[in-house]
Amino acid sequence: MNDEVVVLRYGHRPGRDDRMTTHVGLTARALGADRVILPDNAGQSAETIRDITDRFGGPFAVEQRDDQRAFTRNWEGTVAHLTMYGERVQDVEADVRADSVDEGTPLLVVVGGEKVPFDFYEEADYNVGVTNQPHSEVAGLAVFLDRLFEGAELEREWEDADRRVIPQETGKRVVDPDEAEAERAGDGE
Questions:
Q1: Is 172 annotated as a binding residue?
Q2: What's this model's pTM, rounded to 2 decimal places?
Q3: Does the structural domain 5-158 have CATH classification 3.40.1280.10?
Q4: How confident is the model at residue 188 (pLDDT cuts 50, 70, 90)?
Q5: Where is this region: Disordered (predicted)?
Q6: 113 labeled binding residue
Q7: Is 86 a known ligand-binding residue?
């Protein structure tokens, strides 16, 4: 069974999209995807995502490819293309989940960074719109993944982390994993 969820960031304009491409990758990681595929010219974003994964845990993989159209065309699994022109996420989320995660079939989630060629719309099994209004592709990806996993991704435990965030009402608290485990077991402050 291969229930892998992969996010493909189509297109990257260096200097203009650096932060957005990085946030697509970080959102994919934080909200349950297994890997992100970035364009080959998004090296700084790839390094930042790898650094965050090294520090805050994984598993999560980052790839760079220059053949994104061919990769999507040859994907053996379900393809969901996030676009404001697609079917409403609330109308197709159960079908996407049934066709991919529930069946153990890999899911490719395509997130555009520049004008997406029409063949992506044709190749996709689902063209999915989150609100059908202009907004951030990061927001669309976050909503889509949360609905796909029905909130279960929020309970995920991270492996091989150098740091763990301790949830609290105010302030920031980041500790090493051993200290976090001790607190969870009731041995901490």
A1: no
A2: 0.91
A3: yes
A4: very low
A5: 160-189
A6: yes
A7: no
